[in-house]
Amino acid sequence: MNLENNTINNLTFRPITSSDNAAIYSIIRESLELASLNIPGTAYYDEKLSALSDVYGKPDSKYFVLTDSKDTVVGGIGFSPFPFMKETAELQKLYLKEDFHGKGTGYAMIAFIEEEMRKAGFKYSYLETHTNLPAAIHIYEKSGYRLIERPKEVGHSTMNRFFIKEL
Q: How many structural domains are present in the chain?
């Protein structure tokens, strides 16, 4: 893994572009369907899910796609300010094609986005997830995130596990 060159396991991070929208939209929806989370109150029904490149791309809000050697999108991860907690960014939409699970890529994606959060000036990373995603919860805990009580301000109402980490 070489995060200095934005590469991990022969995969490369790059900022999302409009030409990536359809691919990451499909990856996110397929992942949520596999976890039985294609229900209201999840990213599955986000109004702008099909146009993530329009949502991100500001100094304090970024989304990166992960691509293979043919520049095919295989996953993505992003962050945005979480204004309800001081100096906190929300880790958002970490999704990866199923073929790439179990290879340590999720850990590397988290390390990459945490560094991007630090560069943007954030001190903490917050995230929301669901018990239907036990592998994700395991990765978050192993990455140093600690479980917290449900905040009053939750982005996706169906989520039932909330984590924070000092960056």
A: 1
